[in-house]
Design brief:
158 residues; 5-stranded mixed beta sheet; 6 helices; globular
């Protein structure tokens, strides 16, 4: 999760939400890393998990990532949860819960849907406070910028 957090910290450099992901092989080797780049790339699918899965698939030369673990700082959304199932990832480890869009147990539980042909193990809440704090700080800063809080000139205009 430490490497995923390091990746997440890169996202705000290009105004993206700080979410980071890493895909690990069964032996612990890093296969792929990623962080959100939706804003930078203008790509709605550029979520940290998708980027890390693409890098891992390229590294192993196959879309099948059996035996792999994906660690991500925020509970995956429906798109990313679906991608994890399709990639046959064995385990999903996430930090902060996403009550608004989480699809690995919170709002939905895509990865454990018995109708699907693959169901990865889920480990939730790893370094959740640290992962959640990173997101909270990012959004608090955005609200301050949007409202001009802390800027005397902006306050004078209101």
């Amino acid at each position: 999760m430490g490497l995923a957090l390091d990746e997440a910290r890169l996202a705000p450099e290009h105004d993206d939400v700080p979410v980071g992901a890493v895909v690990l092989a069964a032996d612990g080797a890093v296969l792929g890393v990623g962080h959100n780049t939706r804003e930078r790339d203008g790509d709605p699918t550029a979520h940290a998990e998708v980027i890390a899965l693409r890098a891992a698939a390229q590294a192993v030369g196959s879309w099948r990532l059996a035996g792999a673990t994906l660690a991500v700082t925020l509970e995956p959304c429906t798109m990313c949860a679906g991608a994890l199932v399709l990639a046959r990832v064995d385990r999903v480890v996430y930090g902060a819960v996403d009550d608004k869009a989480g699809a690995v147990g919170s709002l939905w539980d895509v990865v454990r849907d018995r109708r699907l042909n693959h169901r990865p193990e889920v480990i939730a809440g790893i370094r959740a406070e640290e992962c959640g704090a990173l997101l909270a700080e990012f959004f608090a800063a955005r609200r301050r910028i949007r409202t001009g809080a802390g800027d005397p000139a902006a306050a004078a205009v209101r």
